[in-house]
Amino acid sequence: MIDPRSPTTLRYELELTTGDAEERFSVFVEPPLYGDGGVGLELVGAEPVQLEGPAQVVGGAEIFSDAACSTSPAHDVHHGAQARRMDLRIVAPPNTTSKLVATFVPFARDAPFIDMLLRPSFAFDRDRLTIAPAAPRVRGPHGVRILLTTVPGTAFFNPLRAPLVADGALVRVGGRTVPPVRGQTIRLADLPPPRGVRLTTVARVRTDARGRFHARWRPHDAGVHQLFAFYRSQQRGFTDDRTCPAFVRVRR
Fold this sequence. Notes:
Blueprint: E1 10-17, E2 23-30, E3 41-43, E4 49-52, E5 56-65, E6 83-92, E7 97-106, E8 121-124, E9 129-131, E10 145-151, E11 155-156, E12 164-165, E13 171-178, E14 185-191, E15 200-206, E16 212-217, E17 223-231, E18 241-242, E19 246-250
Parallel strand pairs: 12-19
Antiparallel strand pairs: 1-7, 2-6, 2-8, 3-7, 4-7, 5-6, 8-9, 10-13, 11-19, 13-16, 14-15, 14-17, 17-18, 17-19
C-alpha cells in the first residue's frame, strides 16, 4: 500500500535467467501514464534502472517527453510528471541469473484516479512480452477523472482539428465523472482567443446520479476557444480536479 502524499520509494526487481546460449535483448521501461501525457510514477536517480549480476547494458536510450494539453502555458493543466522512459539493450551470458532493478516514486501533486493502475510496465522485444507487476493499493484521496465532450465533436490536444462553428452557434457540452460523483458542481470555463489570459466561466452544472452533466454554450470571438472543466472537491475522499481543454474554433 502506498500514499502518494508521503515519501515512498517503489523498487521493482525482475530476474533474468538464461539457458545454454548468450542472450541479447531490449527492455523498455515505462511508468504508468495519465490520459493526458504525464506519469503517475517517476523514475528517480541518475541510473533509475540498473542490472545486478553478470548481465550488462550495452546501449539504449533515455526518453523524455513533455506533457502539454493547452496552447497557453499558464493554463496547461495536464496530470502527472514529465514522462521519463528507459530503453535498454542487454547482453546476458549463458547459464546465469541477473536482476533488473527499477526505482520509482509516486508523483504527489496529483492524486491517482480510482480506476488507474499505478504500476510500470517492462516490454521485452525478444519474446514480444510485456510484464506489468501487480499495482499497489493506494491510500488517501483519489482524483476525479472528468470525461468532457462537445457537439460538434471535441478535439483534444490539437487545435487545428477543432470543429469550426459560426459566431454564437450552439455547442452542446456533456461529460461524466469517474467515479460517478452525485450532485456535485462542475465549472465549465472558456479561454477565449486571440491571446486568452483569463478564464471565463461558461456554466456551473450539477452532476446527476451517474456523474453526468450537460450544458449549452455559444462561443463568440473568432479563433480557437479552449473549454475546461473544473471540479472542486465536495465529497470526502476525492481531490479537486480538472480536464485538459476541448478546442472549438469560431469562424472569422
